[in-house]
Write a structure and sequence with these properties.
The structure is a homodimer.
Chain A (H helix, E strand, L loop, with lengths): L12 E3 L3 E2 L2 H11 L3 H4 L1 H5 L10 H13 L11 E8 L9 E13 L6 E11 L5 E12 L4
Antiparallel strand pairs in A: 1-4, 2-4, 3-6, 4-5, 5-6
């Protein structure tokens, strides 16, 4: 059973599974989308601001989305983002780290014109194995109730 | 020669190369990070809000970053994002589309405390082959002048 717009309320919380960040996947991603030395090479990374190999922020964001998707919110019609209101990377995620995401419902918006439709505003926070925040994001996602 | 903080000014514009969106890469990405039917299956996608196969918004964002990186801004110390202020996907990007990104400097911020360092605020807009906007983003990126 999927959840419709009516099944969400402010403060509702979803917890993702925990995954370990695979170095090969992080490097493949960096080669494809963000080929900077501090995402690819230990030596260069140790002399950078990151002080060691760090995943691309876009890898961290994409991994976070996968974990959000696996958090059991099971949104009717799928998770379709309308916009990201803010996205921050307070500290680097590193290959070998474990990672999980906590999502909280910040707002439930129903369309006046078409009340079966609306949007959900979510706050997402991704943590590493030391419970340090590696990503913080506020997203606006389309939501609908099923046809009655 | 890389560009330091002093080499940027508001209104400065960078244009990326043009690339074609490879279907195999878009599907691989979706399988790994965003395995929803409208990103993976033509039939399901045609019946969705997207009315046809659409890339994951995180693929669109990651591709955009690669194009931004290839736009010749050649920032001293690399492109390290501090935050994304906003990110929107006004219309879907589709496999086979071509794509390019235009970046404009919106703000140049210099640290009072340590004037060799600061941040650049960029507005990025990604277009498809019909000059329709597929992504709009405002980013804050660390910047520094080289040691004199």
């Amino acid at each position: 059973m999927s959840r419709g717009l009516s099944d969400f309320h402010v403060g509702q919380r979803f917890e993702s599974p925990v995954v370990t960040v695979d170095e090969t996947r992080a490097l493949d991603f960096a080669r494809q989308f963000d080929p900077q030395p501090f995402h690819l090479d230990d030596q260069a990374a140790s002399q950078s601001l990151f002080k060691g190999l760090a995943t691309s922020g876009w890898f961290t964001a994409s991994m976070s989305f996968r974990l959000i998707f696996e958090s059991g919110m099971d949104l009717h019609g799928g998770i379709i983002g309308r916009q990201i209101e803010s996205l921050q990377w307070p500290r680097p995620l590193r290959p070998g780290d474990t990672m999980r995401v906590v999502t909280t419902v910040a707002r439930v918006e129903r369309s006046d014109k078409n009340p079966r439709y609306g949007a959900l505003v979510f706050d997402h926070e991704a943590f590493n194995q030391n419970d340090e925040t590696v990503l913080r994001m506020r997203s606006h996602v389309l939501a609908q109730d099923p046809v009655p």
